[in-house]
From TrEMBL, chain A:
Source taxonomy: Eukaryota, Viridiplantae, Streptophyta, Embryophyta, Tracheophyta
SMART domains: AAA (SM00382), BAH (SM00439), PHD (SM00249)
Bias kind Acidic residues: ranges: 329-339, 348-363
Any one Gene Ontology cellular component term annotated for this protein: nuclear origin of replication recognition complex
A family per Pfam: WHD_Cdc6
Protein name: Origin recognition complex subunit 1
Protein source organism: Hordeum vulgare subsp. vulgare (Domesticated barley)
TrEMBL record, chain B:
Keywords from the UniProt entry: ATP-binding, DNA replication, DNA-binding, Nucleotide-binding, Nucleus
Keyword Nucleus appears in the UniProt entry: yes
Function in brief: Component of the origin recognition complex (ORC) that binds origins of replication. DNA-binding is ATP-dependent. The specific DNA sequences that define origins of replication have not been identified yet. ORC is required to assemble the pre-replication complex necessary to initiate DNA replication.
Protein name: Origin of replication complex subunit 4
Encoding gene per record: LOC123444129
Species per Swiss-Prot/TrEMBL record: Hordeum vulgare subsp. vulgare
GO cellular component: nuclear origin of replication recognition complex
InterPro entries: ATPase_AAA_core (IPR003959), ORC4 (IPR016527), ORC4_C (IPR032705), P-loop_NTPase (IPR027417)
GO annotation, biological process: DNA replication initiation; response to sucrose
Domain named Origin recognition complex subunit 4 C-terminal: residues: 219-403
Lineage of the species this protein comes from: Eukaryota, Viridiplantae, Streptophyta, Embryophyta, Tracheophyta
Residue span, ATPase AAA-type core domain: 58-204
SUPFAM superfamilies (UniProt xref): P-loop containing nucleoside triphosphate hydrolases
């Protein structure tokens, strides 16, 4: 690989195993074909004097001219932004002819919208999403506005006038004639300038000093590598409502700025792509540069000075590196700010906050414009991205469907939307006391320096707001932390039912602490070290960790070791760990081994089922401002649910279902009438009847309906079963006996006698619907049958069947 | 003229009718118009969650063959037409994907296929779950509805129900837009859910029941009547339709229909029946007659055990009768040797000509075992010799008597033996 070859060479401290240059004779098997080395040596810093607009684009000629001449600094159409900076006007004005916005994806509908562009011509440069650019560091804005395209020779300190070669070690440029001994042509293979060579071999050799008064002009490349400039990749371009152009960029970083620093193997021109995304104004963009993958870099001969090499991605949160080729082959694919699964929620929220000021529909459409031009030739399988969500956004490319865009919501539809379980209510009524308790518990634990054995067990039936309350408390604490009132802490949320196996919990915790994925055994080892031995992992080593484990009971294994390990950590002297466990059963600690229950059962919090007033309050608080429900209807629903389970989800679902019934009725009515008459009573309201229907649907098994609609012989069989079971007093009946009863009844009542096998088939069908429980049909007459529903239900269902009037006398 | 109708016309009509019967969209097309059917209710539910960006979960319950799947397919097809690109359907079957890991993999595979992403078989189930949740969020942002169709829903409700939990939990916590549609023939499918899963399930239930007699008659007319403006000759169509209406008004036809629906009135059963009717069509004239219907009915009501009793040999019938006698004597368990003893005593008492050696009897006995007319009473006993294992009769004495009556070659003494048994 080119990278490998160069890597070794550019390591001044390391002895190079082979003589530089002319290495055609002894190429290592992996060494690149000659073109790559040629590129290095014959760096042609040409900027052909093209017309202004072209020059600004920095089109790089594909081929070097055979007779390399050119060393003219371009005739200054330079972006030189301090001088020529212009705000892009919303519409192309005659004064700024270059600021044409090409191919706007959609017509602007409202002036207040963000508009996303695929390509923007700005200050003479044409920038498209996916381009790499230099970006000025605002604070370090140097006054030398000129940006030398051509570099001075390191010996004669003049630019231009002949071919220059680049030293592979110091990246300095040399005229062929200035080098001692002078070179005839551009050498093949790696080449180091005499000075570097001397340094490398340990000799002292003074580099020529620049003439007094002449300042070395640094190229953008040098500034970048000296971290006076930034490089970034444009992710998307947009115009804000105020007319300013902004770009969303993903930063590159130089090796010096990573946590590891410059490593021996880093190339001079190596950059790391980060997972950090920022918004910048377009005016800070200097001009284009070219960041290439190893393959492109090798093939890119003579592409000018602004060529960089990028092989790895750098994770700024966890300070680790990932090879880009493992993620995706072309770096164009986008990544959301919510890159890591662990902080996804936070980032995601902030993201939507920004956008929510604008028309919501704008967002996906905007994505599409930005991403339209990507072509994915070869990407990694989508489901093994390890939590990265590259390229999934292309799902959103399509335009917003019409039905979403111009849909006026009626009161009923609004009510349905607010009753959704997914909508987060603005306030959480009725759980103030519990939330207060959780909040004091967590705060105590965080603020206390020695939080020992902190574990809170929360229990309650499903749908009583356990998880929701904890999460609300954590949100509140987070905002407190943001305002500076609280020490930093780390919050990890785990759901027991979402783990593939209980042991995986170690893996998940470790990943969220450190950002690495390891097997669970190793993770357990590290975590034990972290918590008990004080060998901290991750950068937030000393922060208290709040661990929320939802559905705790699923972590139970045969020997309960997972629970034991996890609950043992908080008791260690400086673990700084707080555990909040959530489960349904009240006596889970008692069911566990005593050594676990002694660690867990100390502090408990019970979420009792809601009573009807609370349910009513929850529903009305959600429906505030929407006039769709009758008051009695809400009360009825909440009373019903409170009597059965006290599950808030259930109550909300019933109300939503009732609203659906009402909506369905209204829509059907509109279809029939075409003109809805508002005088119709209770039409747009959810009334008691709807609630009743909804409750029926939720709470009633449909078996009576099905029994009523059974085929005739099915009913006879059911009746005969009730009869036989009653007579024998047993729980089950043999098919043989049952068939005999059916035949005798049919005989007495002059029905056509069904075949034996037909009866068996009907029995099996009933068994399939689980109206009766039966053994498999191969047992024929030895099949045992059992009723699955109370016999009263059967009697009730079959009492007045019109096609079998004689049946009722047997029941 | 019926006689003049050439065979190609009949063949064509035959093909048209068969095509109709095999096309569920045509069978259920009459549901589309009326507002009170499951079709319009389901369509409203799914369409409103597409257009109002909400999550829903529905259960379609009802016995097999009532058209749950067909109605759902129709709804999905219609919605695809109404909202192109806004719907992606993920289909899972409990028979194939009841294992959680396998189901998440399948979901990831179908999502990848739907959105032209490449898919890796090697991804772990965590990866797949994460991918699914990411996809749900992205689809929600793009106002795309993901519809999960879970056939044989009851089979998903086994074990820890991790799949259902993560699906339903994603639906209630994220900005996703998804509909989970479960289909099951178990009426208590929602009771099978674990309490946490049940709490997250939004309990919409649509019940599918067998149609009533009027509906069936209407369905039959809808399926069998030929249209005037088809490619078939007009005089043939009128002839055919008039014959059909006369059959429909026939009293005998009512009887046929009754005996059909008395056992099974589901749509699929009706379709099976009609297919047979059409297959019995007279290809000369291309018309349906009453005989087609009666023949089809009798072929629907085959009694396989009676049929297999018909062609048993005399010796085998002797063995069955002996077993029946033993069972009537309240002998709880008996084996081949007991049967042979009984057989010998009968032979001694009546001196019939049907006296066979024990080995021959054993062959007959094995044959009966193979035909599953008798079975072993115990499940274990692998190392016990065949003749010592207890056996049981699988047919009732009533069937046996009936088949002896129908069997012309059966010696009179056998019937007497069975009848005497009755009176004793």
């Amino acid at each position: 690989m080119a990278a490998a070859a160069q890597m070794e060479f550019s390591t001044p401290s390391k002895p190079t195993p082979r003589r530089k240059s002319k290495s055609v004779a002894s190429p290592p098997p992996m060494s690149p074909a000659t073109p790559s080395t040629v590129r290095r040596s014959s760096r042609l810093l040409e900027t052909p004097a093209k017309d202004l607009s072209e020059a600004a684009l920095f089109e790089t000629p594909a081929k070097p001219k055979p007779k390399a001449v050119l060393f003219e600094t371009p005739a200054k159409p330079k972006p030189a932004p301090t001088l020529k900076r212009k705000r892009a006007a919303p519409s192309p004005s005659p004064k700024t002819p270059t600021q044409t916005e090409r191919k706007p994806k959609r017509q602007r509908r409202l002036p207040t919208n963000r508009v996303y562009y695929r390509k923007v011509v700005y200050d003479g440069g044409e920038f498209a999403a996916g381009d790499d650019v230099y970006i000025k560091r605002l604070e370090g804005e140097e006054s030398d506005a000129e940006d030398p395209e051509a570099e001075d020779c390191r010996v004669c300190f003049r630019a231009g006038g002949g071919v220059m070669v680049e030293c592979d070690a110091c990246l300095g440029g040399f005229h062929l004639r200035c080098v001692r001994p002078p070179l005839r042509r551009v050498p093949e293979g790696d080449w180091a300038c005499p000075y570097c060579k001397a340094e490398h071999e340990g000799r002292a050799m003074d580099r020529p000093k620049p003439p007094v008064g002449k300042k070395i002009k640094r190229t953008a490349k040098e500034k970048l590598l000296a971290s006076d400039l930034w490089a970034a990749r444009i992710e998307s371009l947009r115009r804000e409502p105020d007319g300013a152009f902004w770009a969303k960029v993903r930063w590159y970083t130089i090796p010096e700025e990573t946590a590891a620093g410059r490593q021996p193997h880093n190339l001079r021109r190596e950059l790391y792509r980060t997972n950090d995304v920022g918004d910048i104004e377009m005016e800070t963009i200097l001009r284009h540069c070219f960041v290439m993958s190893p393959k492109e870099f090798r093939d890119a001969a003579n592409d000018g000075d602004d060529v960089f090499y990028c092989e790895y991605e750098y994770d700024i949160h966890w300070h680790n590196f990932k090879r880009l080729a493992d993620i995706d082959d072309e770096p164009e694919t986008k990544e959301d700010p919510s890159d890591e699964p662990y902080n996804a929620a936070d980032d995601y929220n902030s993201d939507t906050d920004v956008d929510s000021e604008y028309d919501e529909e704008d967002e996906p459409a905007a994505r599409c414009s930005a991403r339209k031009n990507q072509s994915n030739e070869k990407i990694l399988p989508a489901n093994s991205w390890k939590g990265r969500i590259y390229g999934l956004q292309k799902i959103g490319i399509r335009k917003i469907p019409e039905h979403v865009r111009c849909h006026q919501k009626t009161a009923l539809e609004k009510a349905k939307a607010t009753l959704l379980l997914a909508t987060l209510p603005k306030s959480l009524p009725c759980r103030d006391k519990e939330m207060e308790e959780i909040s004091t518990f967590v705060k105590d634990a965080i603020c206390n320096d020695h939080c020992l054995g902190r574990c809170l067990y929360i229990h309650g039936v499903p749908g009583t707001g356990k998880t929701m309350s904890v999460l609300a408390v954590m949100r509140r604490l987070r905002s407190e932390f943001d305002s500076g009132a609280l020490r930093p802490y780390c919050f990890i949320e785990i759901n027991g039912l979402k783990l593939a196996s209980p042991e995986n919990i170690y893996k998940v915790i470790y990943e969220q602490l450190s950002g690495h994925r390891v097997g669970w055994k190793k993770a357990l080892h590290y975590l034990t070290q972290h918590f008990s031995d004080g060998k901290k992992i991750g950068k937030q080593a000393n922060q208290p960790i709040v661990l929320l484990i939802d559905e705790l009971d699923l972590l139970l294994t045969r020997n309960q070791s997972v629970l034991y390990n996890i609950l043992d950590w908080p008791t260690k002297p400086n673990s700084n760990l707080v555990i909040i466990g959530i489960a349904n059963t009240m006596d889970l600690p008692e069911k566990l081994l005593p050594r676990i229950s002694s660690r867990m059962g100390i502090q408990r919090l019970c979420f009792g089922p809601y009573n009807y007033r609370q349910l009513q309050e929850i529903i009305t608080s959600r429906l505030k401002g929407i006039n769709a429900f009758e008051d009695q209807a809400i009360e009825f629903a909440s009373r019903k649910v409170a009597a059965m389970s006290g599950d808030a989800r259930r109550a909300l679902e019933i109300c939503r279902r009732a609203a659906e019934f009402a909506d369905y009725r209204v829509k059907q009515f509109q279809q029939v009438e075409q003109t809805p008459s508002s005088a119709n009573i209770g039409n747009g309201f959810v009334c008691m009847g709807d609630i009743e229907d909804a409750i029926q649907e939720v709470f009633q098994a449909p078996h009576i309906q099905v029994m009523k609609n059974c085929p005739k012989f099915g009913k006879v069989i059911l009746a005969a079963m009730v009869h036989e079971l009653y007579r024998s007093g047993l729980g089950e009946v043999l098919f043989d006996k049952l068939a005999a009863t059916v035949f005798s009844w049919c005989h007495v009542n002059r029905e056509i006698l069904p075949g034996y096998d037909t009866l068996l088939k009907i029995c099996c069908k009933l068994g399939e619907s689980k109206i009766v429980l039966c053994e498999e049909g191969t047992k024929h007459k030895l099949q045992k049958l059992q009723l699955n529903y109370p016999s009263d239900d059967v009697t009730f269902a079959l009492k007045e069947s019109p096609d079998l009037p004689w049946l009722s006398k047997y029941l | 003229m019926a006689a003049a109708a050439p065979a190609p016309v009949a063949g064509h009509a035959h093909a048209v009718l068969r095509g109709r019967l095999c096309d569920p969209a045509f069978v259920h097309s009459c549901l589309r118009s009326s507002p009170d059917t499951n079709y319009s209710k389901l369509k409203y539910l799914v369409a409103s969650s597409v257009s109002e960006a909400c999550n829903n979960s529905v259960l379609l319950l009802g016995p097999r063959g009532c058209g749950k799947g067909a109605v759902l397919d129709m709804v999905l097809e219609d919605l695809r037409k109404e909202h192109p690109d806004a719907i992606s359907v993920i289909r899972l079957n409990g028979m194939l994907h009841s294992d959680d890991n396998c189901a998440t993999k399948e979901i990831a595979r179908q999502l990848c296929l739907e959105h032209q992403l490449s898919f890796s078989k090697m991804a772990s189930s965590d990866d797949n779950t994460e991918f699914m949740i990411d996809m749900l969020r992205e689809c929600g942002l793009a106002h795309k509805t993901v519809i999960f169709v879970l056939e044989e829903f009851d089979l998903f409700a086994q074990g820890k129900q991790r799949l259902l939990y993560s699906l339903l939990d994603a639906m209630q916590s994220l900005t996703s837009q998804a509909v989970v549609i479960g289909m099951s023939c178990r009426l208590d499918a929602d009771q099978l859910l674990e309490k946490r899963v049940r709490s997250r399930f939004s309990h919409r239930k649509l019940l599918f029941v067998p149609s009533s007699l009027d509906d069936i008659q209407r369905l039959m007319e809808h399926l069998l009547m030929l249209e005037k403006d088809s490619s078939l000759p007009t005089n043939y169509v009128t002839e055919y339709n008039s014959r059909l209406t006369s059959i429909f008004s026939n009293k005998k036809f009512k009887g046929v229909l009754d005996s059909l629906t008395d056992t099974d009135a589901t749509t699929s059963n009706i379709l099976r029946f009609l297919f047979r009717v059409v297959s019995y069509m007279d290809m000369e004239s291309g018309l349906l007659s009453m005989e087609c219907f009666t023949d089809a009915l009798s072929s629907m009501q085959r009694q396989p055990k009676m049929d297999s009793l018909q062609d048993l040999s005399i010796l085998e019938l002797y063995i069955l009768v002996c077993m029946n006698r033993l069972e009537d004597k309240e002998q709880k368990s008996y084996n081949f040797n007991t049967i042979i003893k009984e057989y010998k005593s009968i032979q001694d008492a009546y001196k019939t000509s049907d006296k066979y050696a024990t080995t021959v009897c054993f062959r007959a006995f094995e044959h009966l075992l193979d035909r599953e007319l008798i079975t072993f009473a115990d499940t274990k006993g692998r190392n016990v010799a065949l003749e010592y294992r207890p056996v049981k009769l699988l047919i009732s004495s009533r069937e046996l008597a009936q088949s002896l009556n129908l069997n012309t070659t059966c010696p009179a003494v056998l019937q007497k033996l069975l009848d005497r048994e009755r009176y004793m």
